[in-house]
Amino acid sequence: MLAVEQLTRRFGANVAVDNASFTVDRPMMIGVIGRSGAGKSTLLRMVNRLTDASAGRILFNGEDVLGYRGAAKRRWQSQCAMIFQQFNLVPRMDVVTNVLHGTLNRRSTAATLFNLWPEDDIHRAIEILDRLGIAEQAPKRAEALSGGQQQRVAIARALMQDPAMILADEPIASLDPMNAQVVMQALRRIHEEDGRMVIANLHTLDTARRYCDRVIGMRDGRIVFDGTPAQLTTGVARDIYGADASFSEAATSTEIGALERHPVHA
Ligand SMILES: Nc1ncnc2c1ncn2[C@@H]1O[C@H](COP(=O)(O)OP(=O)(O)OP(=O)(O)O)[C@@H](O)[C@H]1O
């Protein structure tokens, strides 16, 4: 269904993504790991067409995604909804309105300006919030919610688009371990219950192991690992992170208590 072929993005002399290829033949939950600057965000942003590719192809169900222009590009962007580390909500707006913004690309400007939302959409927004366990927050301003709740609002907004896939760029990097767990569980459920593909950039190895069916490891723009969590041995992880023998998984962990169990010595 998704084929990324020799995808490359250069920024001047810097190659952010270098000849990356992978195929996904059924909806799965994929974690993309690698250290800061490895090219994870650029890869996701190219899939979503937020960033242009320098070379390569992306095919979805046989169609050339990088060739989409205008309305076709917008349709594609609603097919692969993106969520971000910083949630990207409108802080002073209430939660339901933020979720309804997920339908913006199929609404007229006038309807949006006057805040005229179809009743069906409002009901659907509340249903989605309920599914994510935050329906009671619906009338509150987004800024009044905790980080984990705000990220669930962002997921709800993405689901309003009824996307085939969700691209999550460091969805839990700003969250404490408890909230990180709630958000990852929400993404996993969306994958399992709705059959949507989820591709999430993750800083932490244990999160990728625990929630993903497949892990792609990036180093210096290149895909250096593509396999199951079971194949992701400490040696492989060391290679992805470019670390030496003192590498400890706990150093990349958000798991509650991981650092206490495996202290990292400086
Ligand atoms: N708009 C841009 N202009 C110039 N260079 C960029 C731009 N976006 C990314 N880069 C560079 O491309 C490389 C890959 O960055 P990218 O953000 O994709 O990595 P990442 O793995 O997502 O890192 P992080 O986890 O820190 O977000 C980095 O060297 C970065 O500086």
UniProtKB/TrEMBL annotation:
Listed name of the protein: Phosphonates import ATP-binding protein PhnC
Superkingdom of origin organism: Bacteria
InterPro entries, per the entry: AAA+_ATPase (IPR003593), ABC_transporter-like_ATP-bd (IPR003439), ABC_transporter-like_CS (IPR017871), ABC_transpr_PhnC (IPR012693), MetN_ABC_transporter-like (IPR050086), P-loop_NTPase (IPR027417)
Pfam families: ABC_tran
GO cellular component, one term: membrane
UniProt keywords, alphabetically: ATP-binding, Cell inner membrane, Cell membrane, Membrane, Nucleotide-binding, Translocase, Transport
GO molecular function, one term: ATP hydrolysis activity
Entry's transmembrane regions: none
Record Gene3D superfamilies: P-loop containing nucleotide triphosphate hydrolases
ABC transporter domain segment(s): 2-245
UniProt keyword annotation of Lipoprotein present: no
